[in-house]
Amino acid sequence: MAILEVKNIEKHFGNTKVLEDVGFSLEEGKALAIIGSSGSGKTTLLRCLNFLETPDRGTISVKGEVLFDGSAPHAGKEKELRRKRLHFGLVFQSFHLFPQYTALENVMLAEELLAREREGYKRNKRDIQEEIRRHGAELLDRMGLKERMDHYPHQLSGGQQQRVAIARALALKPDILCFDEPTSALDPELTGEVLKVIRSLAQQKTTMVIVTHEMAFARDVADQVIFMDGGVVVEAGESHQVIDHPREERTRQFLSRY
Amino acid sequence: MFWTVTLELLNGLATTFQIFIFTLIFALPLGLLLALGTMNKWKPLRFLLQVLIWVIRGTPLMLQLIIIFYGPGLWLGHNIWKGNEAGRITATVVAFSINYACYFSVIFRGGIEGVPAGQREAGQVLGMTRSQIFFKVTLLQMVKRVVPPLSNEVITLVKDTSLARIIAAYELTFAGYSFMKSAGITWPLFYTGVFYLVFVGLLTLLFNFVEKKLSYFR
């Protein structure tokens, strides 16, 4: 059964329709790449999944639970919305690390705040914090940033910052990790180190949705690709098929530029 | 004579300092609340606070002080401020706190709005509550942004305390002026200026220190 099921998503900004009847499903442990030109609605779709935008219509379900239903949008309270959000992690195009915290603190912050709501937090405060610290350090180690844990974001290169952001998103163990053009703010050299990390996450069977302009990367790392244009899904399928042998004329046009 | 003047000026400085410190204690949190209020989703509240800020920033502080000190006595028939020095200082602090909170609120709002939206969104997708995002993410970044404009206002406040003389509070300027009136000597006026300069000098050092403390992040 699919871990993520998105159906009939529709979204307007004022009178402009930015998403129309968008749907897809994703199996656990698979990676999905969303490609398309700027303004095609890719980022908006990703923001809908993370509840940063509210779709006007459609449903979003994770593990069979309907998290969002356009016919009854966000009936729940803030607490409910927060719980739903935690199914998803998001890595932003321009990192958005918290500048006043070190790399390690950035990774630990949300987990610490969440732990405060756990029962018996006060009694086991020290143990819990130690545990969170160990978890954060381990994640940064996996990102190849063992030596950079106590650096502040402005002391890190763009590629290092983005890897911290990936560790931060992984810290809460989301079911689905989303990337919004994770390498668009990086030069080619730094792009490589970030893509390498995402590639290794794919090998470890992390469920991912990746908005990207890196076609070769999408083909090699993603299992499925969807091509969007003008707010609709033009073509969807297995990644090699869509990128190497597109069926639709519009997809072919788009890919010819790469 | 020098010691007599020095002691009198120190006496005036005590009042000046009380007005200064209590105004800050009340106006800083009040300013932050006003700032959050002017960014509230509810339009009527926003409108009301904007009118308040317009009135307070649009009229002289001296006028506000006179109204707050004499108004209650004239309208209610009995003065709510005690007739002694403490009463005058209290009235001054009330007037100053309202006035300065309005100026601070605009600075704070600018500081909060200057924090990129991405910071709040990053907090949101990490499952933080609105208040966690404010206190753990936005607040310190805002503080860093508002230190320079805030230092301007705080330094202005030091000198604005001399307005309390209009309701006969015996603050620093009043003390220096009294020698000119009683003994016809002018040098205490310059000596008074030195007191202000030292006060502001120390504040400048303090603000430089805070700015430096906050320079560990960008």
Q: How is this structure best described in words?
A:
The complex is a heterodimer of chains A (258) and B (218). With 258 residues, chain A is α/β, with parallel strands linked by helices. Helix content of chain A is 37%, strand content 26%. Chain A has helices at 42-49, 78-85, 103-115, 125-142, 158-170, 188-203, 215-221, 239-244, 249-255; strands at 2-13, 16-27, 31-35, 57-62, 65-69, 88-91, 176-180, 208-211, 224-229, 232-238. In chain A, helix 3 packs parallel to helix 5. Chain A is globular and about 60 Å long. The model of chain A has no long low-confidence stretch (mean pLDDT 91). With 218 residues, chain B is an all-alpha fold. Chain B is 81% helix and 0% strand. Chain B is built from eight helices and no strands. In chain B, helix 4 packs across helix 6, helix 6 runs antiparallel to helix 8 (187-213) and helix 7 packs antiparallel against helix 8. Chain B is flat and about 70 Å long. The N and C termini of chain B lie far apart (53 Å). The mean pLDDT of chain B is 93. The interface between A and B is medium-sized, with 28 and 22 residues.
List keywords for this structure.
heterodimer; A: 258 residues; alpha/beta; 6-stranded mixed β-sheet; 4-stranded antiparallel β-sheet; 10 strands; globular; B: 218 residues; mainly alpha; 81% helix
* Strand-residue proportion of chain B: under 5%
User: Largest beta sheet of chain A: what is the strand line-up?
Assistant: 6-7-8-3-9-10
Shape of chain B: flat
N- to C-terminal distance of chain A: 34 Å
Sheet with the most strands, sense and barrel status of chain B: none
Average pLDDT rating of chain B = 93
* Overall strand count of chain A: 10
End-to-end gap of chain B:
53 Å
H and E string of chain A? EEEHEEHEHHHEHEHEEHH
Low-pLDDT residue spans of chain B: none
In percent, how helical is the residue content of chain A?
25-40%
Taken from the alpha-carbon principal axes, the silhouette of chain A is globular
Query: Which structural class matches the secondary elements of chain B?
Result: mainly alpha
The Cα radius of gyration of chain A reads 19 Å
Could you name the ranges of chain A where pLDDT drops below 50 across 5 or more consecutive residues? Answer: none
Secondary-structure element string of chain B: HHHHHHHH
Biggest interface pair, counts: A-B, 28 and 22 residues
The pLDDT mean of chain A sits at: 91
Radius of gyration of chain B: 21 Å
